[in-house]
């Protein structure tokens, strides 16, 4: 395996814990309004609309829109689903949508990325917009060299263009880049696009009862425990 | 003046000293080949082809090409101009073109940017490609939050789209962004696009006999001595 020049990272789930932060803000806002709901169920329901919304764009039925726009539309639908439509005005919804900019990194993320940055170009290759990735990374001190991914490519993973246009922005061949993710389907798409791959398990991304992506499901070039362990694998 | 949310920076000349580094590599390579030329004159001649090359694209006579490609073409022309065509093969030319990835920051740049980063989103809005800005910034430890500018916008400053598409990538109005540059014409274009402006003099960018951009030529919102002084102006 030739050493990669750059490492691309999935972000939601792989670098940051989206579920806890989204649940915490939902819980706080709902409590302030005197309502009672299962705020973890709300976070999961909001996130469950993520792939179907992107699929409209991947399938060509809708032109590219930043993930912030999709998150906001999905929030409206989730509030309806939970009978909260009348309780959240336009300002509340804008505030709640910003939950996605304030997600906490996993304990190994910042230390691991900092070590990996010493030898490699490191960049998110996420479905988040450039605006969202920038603010989220500033919030969590994620030390990227640049921000790539869907916002740049105007294509959502697993569309190969999301990976290929990100490689092209660095003037690298796909084989010179390694995709790091906690999701086997993301890695399968990256491999199909010609990238090297690394799996990191994040077994509580979806809570304690998670059943998917508990382990590597293919012969990815590297399987590491977390991002600090990946730094060890890559001699950083 | 409302406080900006993000600061955009010109890079060549404003954040880094391109002339010294390019001259040093030219001088070294020419010496190794046993040739004698004025390496500062070579650096200046190479750079003099920068605006005319971009103008072909701004004027619509050529489709967008990354600055690395223009630099490489301009290098061929400059080698011809100095009678060195036969002395630099394709590998030498590739090596020499990489001079633009290894430019030294001015003494105040890293400290100033680091302070400004504590309160603002900071990003290059340069004519350099994403690849070039990423490698240059890694070389000089420039702590950007993201990389914007021509490579993202596929338009060269002073085309308004270079500024406007960079603002849009952050989901900010132009008035929420301040352009920081050592070049009055860059600031004039940024102001026309609706951005706030800050002038920083870099009076030796073109060497000790520089005659242009020695001072602010309009009522820019801020005129600062250097990037650390700008941090003071903005209470960072």
What key attributes describe this structure?
homodimer, 236 residues, alpha/beta, Rossmann fold, DNA polymerase, domain 1, two-stranded antiparallel sheet, 11 helices, 45% helix, EC 3.8.1.2 (chains A, B), HAD_sf (chains A, B), hydrolase (chains A, B), (S)-2-haloacid dehalogenase (chains A, B)
Question: What is the secondary structure topology, with strand pairs?
Answer:
The structure is a homodimer of 236-residue chains.
Chain A: E1 6-9, E2 16-17, H1 18-32, H2 39-48, H3 50-58, H4 67-81, H5 90-97, E3 104-105, H6 109-117, E4 121-126, H7 130-140, E5 148-149, H8 150-153, H9 160-169, E6 177-181, H10 184-192, E7 196-199, E8 222-223, H11 227-233
Parallel strand pairs in A: 1-4, 1-6, 4-5, 6-7, 7-8
Antiparallel strand pairs in A: 2-3
Helix pairs in contact in A: 1-2, 2-4, 4-5, 6-11
Give a structural overview:
Chains A, B: Catalyzes the hydrolytic dehalogenation of small (S)-2-haloalkanoic acids to yield the corresponding (R)-2-hydroxyalkanoic acids. Chains A, B: It catalyses: an (S)-2-haloacid + H2O = a (2R)-2-hydroxycarboxylate + a halide anion + H(+). Chains A, B: InterPro entries: 2-HAD, HAD-like_sf, HAD-SF_hydro_IA, HAD_sf, PGP-like_dom2, S-2-haloacid_dehalogenase. Chains A, B: Its EC number is 3.8.1.2. Chains A, B: Belongs to the HAD-like hydrolase superfamily. S-2-haloalkanoic acid dehalogenase family. Two copies of one chain form a homodimer. The mean pLDDT of chain A is 97. In chain A, 47% of the residues are buried. In chain A, the strands form two sheets. Chain A has a six-stranded parallel β-sheet with strand order 5-4-1-6-7-8. Helix content of chain A is 45%, strand content 11%. Chain A has helices spanning 18-32, 39-48, 50-58, 67-81, 90-97, 109-117, 130-140, 150-153, 160-169, 184-192, 227-233; strands spanning 6-9, 16-17, 104-105, 121-126, 148-149, 177-181, 196-199, 222-223. The first copy, chain A, has two domains: 6-17 and 103-233, 3-Layer(aba) Sandwich (Rossmann fold), CATH 3.40.50; 18-101, Putative phosphatase, domain 2 (DNA polymerase, domain 1). By secondary structure, the first copy, chain A, is an alpha/beta fold. In chain A, helix 1 packs across helix 2 (39-48) and helix 4 crosses helix 5 (90-97). Chain A contains eleven helices and eight strands. The A-B interface holds A 66, 68, 121, 123, 129-131, 133-135, 137-138, 144-148, 151-152, 169-172 and B 66, 68, 121, 123, 129-131, 133-135, 137-138, 144-148, 151-152, 169-172.
């Amino acid at each position: 395996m030739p050493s990669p020049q750059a490492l691309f990272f999935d972000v939601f789930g792989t670098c940051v814990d989206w579920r806890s932060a989204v649940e915490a803000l939902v819980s706080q806002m709902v409590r302030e309004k005197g309502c009672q709901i299962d705020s973890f169920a709300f976070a999961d329901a909001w996130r469950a609309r993520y792939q179907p919304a992107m699929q409209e764009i991947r399938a060509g039925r809708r032109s590219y829109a930043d993930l912030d726009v999709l998150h906001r539309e999905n929030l409206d639908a989730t509030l309806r689903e939970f009978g909260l439509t009348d309780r959240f005005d336009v300002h509340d919804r804008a505030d709640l949508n910003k939950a996605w900019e304030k997600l906490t990194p996993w304990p190994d993320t910042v230390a691991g990325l900092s070590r990996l940055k010493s030898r490699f170009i490191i960049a998110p290759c996420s479905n988040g917009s450039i605006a969202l990735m920038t603010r989220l990374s500033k919030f969590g001190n994620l030390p990227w060299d640049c921000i790539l991914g869907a916002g740049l490519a105007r294509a959502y993973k697993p569309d190969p263009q999301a990976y290929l246009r990100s490689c092209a922005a660095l003037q690298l061949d796909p084989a010179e880049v390694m995709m790091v993710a906690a999701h086997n389907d993301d890695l399968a798409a990256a491999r199909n696009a010609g990238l090297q791959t690394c799996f990191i398990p994040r077994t509580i991304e979806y809570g304690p009862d998670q059943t998917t992506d508990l382990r590597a499901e293919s012969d990815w070039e590297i399987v590491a425990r977390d991002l600090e362990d990946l730094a060890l694998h890559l001699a950083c």
